[in-house]
TrEMBL record, chain A:
Domain DUF58 intervals: 193-236, 276-421
Top-level taxon: Bacteria
One of the Pfam families matching this protein, by short name: DUF58
PANTHER family: BLL2464 PROTEIN, SLR2013 PROTEIN
Protein name per the record: DUF58 domain-containing protein
Upper taxonomic lineage: Bacteria, Bacillati, Actinomycetota, Actinomycetes, Streptosporangiales
UniProtKB/TrEMBL annotation, chain B:
Region (Disordered), start-end ranges: 1-20
Annotated ranges, domain DUF4350: 61-225
Organism whose genome encodes this protein: Nonomuraea corallina
One Pfam family from the record: DUF4350
Compositionally biased residues, Low complexity: 8-20
Keywords noted in UniProt: Membrane, Transmembrane, Transmembrane helix
Name of the featured protein: DUF4350 domain-containing protein
InterPro entries in alphabetical order: DUF4350 (IPR025646)
Transmembrane segments: 31-50, 260-278
Lineage per the UniProt record: Bacteria, Bacillati, Actinomycetota, Actinomycetes, Streptosporangiales
Amino acid sequence: MALTGRAGLVAALGIVVVLFAPQPGPALAGVCLLLAAGILVDLTLAGAVRPLRFHRSGERLVRLGESTTVELTVENPGGRRVRGVLRDAWQPSAGAAPREAPLDVPAGERRKVVVTLTPTRRGDRESVAVAVRSLGPLGLAARQGGHRSPWTVRVLPPFLSRKHLPARLARLRELDGRHPALVRGQGTEFDSLREYVAGDDVRSIDWRATARRHDVVVRTWRPERDRRVLIVLDTGRTSAGRVGAAPIPLAGAVPKGPAGQPARPEPGWPRLDWSMDAALLLAALAARAGDRVDLLAYDRSVRTWLSGASRTELLSSLVNAMAPIEAELVEADAQGMVAAILARAKRRCLVVLLTDLNAAAMDEGLMPVLPQLSARHLVLVAGVSDPRVAAMAAGRGTAEEVYDAAAAEHARLERRRITARLRRHGVEVVDAPPDDLAPALADHYLALKAAGRL
Amino acid sequence: MTTPHQAPPAGGSASAPTSPTLRSMWRGGRLIALLGLIVVAIAAITTLLGPDPRQERFLDPDDTSLRGSKALAELLRARGVTVDRVDSVEKARALGGDRLLFASDTLYLATDDLTDLPGDRLLVGAFDLKQLAPGVEPAPEVARERSRAPECALPAAAAAGSAFIGGVAFEVPPGGTGCYPSREGWTLVTHAAPTGTTTVVGSGSFMTNLRLDEDGNAALAINLLDTGKPVTWLVRPENPSPGDLAGEEGRSIYDLMPPGIGWSLLMAGVAVVLVAFWRGRRLGPVVVERLPVVVRAAETVEGRGRLYRARKARERAAGALRAGALDRLIPRLGLGRGANGHEVVAAIAAGTDEDPRQVGDALYGPPPENDEGLVALAGYVDHIERKVSEL
């Protein structure tokens, strides 16, 4: 049960009545009895909440930054009209609106309540409960009850870097495929045989085929295809650090200062989310280029393993697999990660390791075991650099800023040192600020492909 | 938000009520209700069967507690002294006659009323003495309560010997007698007032059940009270309420309030409870969510910067700035990784028109001696980098 403000108002009016009544004692008893009777009448005559039935329909998937709707159908099989409010209790970051919706379902009918979800972060969001408050005819008291009507909406990574895809695809077409090259170069493989046309390079004539066909036949070549790309997401503690500016603002993450300004600098997105964005662009590009893409997410155990997705389904499977992954606050186990990669990638492939180029963590973790990996596979390590560190390194003027600049310079130096060491091990390194990571990684992939190093 | 929707729901999922029924509430709550009932029952029984809950009443002839004075009253009665316990001035006046008035607590008495009572007086503690015992002035300091020798010729005190006394100290008026001196003054003063002999003692604890059998306490108390006159023992009224305190023209605060105020306060309480229930009842459960940590990656770098600042680590700060600059300068100057300081300085001085000694000091010299030096160093290193990049 629940009371309304009207009950409190009646009681407040009762104070005045009792104060000026000739016999205050009986007046008090009368007011209280009247109120109790009214509440009792309301509770008896309010539409029952327990027999209500709920059905849901609507979207199951939504991309972060977009809105979706979920419809909740309320069916009232009882004998009385249910009038009041309904709350569909979603998790806070699902951004459900409205919080409470008015409800009026006549007996034996059903009504639809539409809830708009605007999620503020990635992952699975569920509706925990549906609560209904059914008012009585006098509006003094209400019946209240909860129902479970589960529904989960998966919030997918936004794939903001898809704006870079057309330009990279154009580069890919230039490089390859639609125009078979007649010159055999590095990074090409045999494509087909066709009849000689005047103007073809005589060096590409396939004499053995020509002998069989009584016609001059030339070989054509195209860039290598059907290579394997294994994207590895490091979900350890270093990937939880937030960098850059969040393209989709986090609701309630930044407490506002007194002047409406954020009290602290905007915390940005976790490194993991930037890595995912870059991984999606790379996967989209690699799928178009005819390579196979697998995904592994690892910290101390395998978080996600996605393999063998068909080329048309690849992106949707990837975003689905990535959506629930969160950074774990544990040190990543590099040895285990390398073992997991080696167990899964039997053939030589391009291992794209998306992690943080953190010197301390790398020295302890990845550096000792990297040779095992680079001996069998081509390894590309991609890390998000922090624009805030670059801004700090440029700070001059006051002693405070110079001390900060020295600290930032120290961090950058460590980062360059670890990058240099990685390159000496024959590992490709992409180190870019958050907004540039995805295109930089895609460009590096194209360059590797053009050089035939996959 | 509600729209008519007549078509059957397409592919909806089932729902189940989660709110408790009366039966489940009874099942879940009956143990707690039983426990509550037991607690209430035990409390009621101990209250009904327990000792008299009345407070200890200081110097009350009917109180048997350590602070009461029933022992003294019984002793006086055994010696044939009439002891009448009264709790108001009106009752004391009604007894009339030539009596000894013994008063120990004036909080609930108006001293004006006492002034015109005839007979002797024995007063305990700081009264408004101007009217009751003119001439006896309390000293500014309070004397510690302890066993004291009488050191006076007053028969009552001299016969009793040392007694546990202290409290308010007084100055003796002309013609009066002071006993039991302390450093602050006399703690027992007696003198002849117009209405009769008036005795003032600094504290009454020597008359309590606790102290009566120590020293000469009992003797002193009996000597003071057994004067051959009946004793009017004035105590404070039972559970006086603040509203009964005598006010202007004898009207208490309740006389000024409308009669229904108590009942309407009760009604206001009911209203507050209802409003609290209205505001406090939540629609649906609190929804919990496992949120990711919000920690900016740059915090470790900022922390290192603050550490440099706090420890004035100019050597490390300058070292980091120089190493960063050299890391960028050396490839730009076309030198190898292993180039030593002289080669680098020479290459910079040759490319730009900077003084080689200054360049060497900036890149390889001793650490700056103060923060201004560090800022200047950072500026000069920037200047060198700019010059080299313009080559």
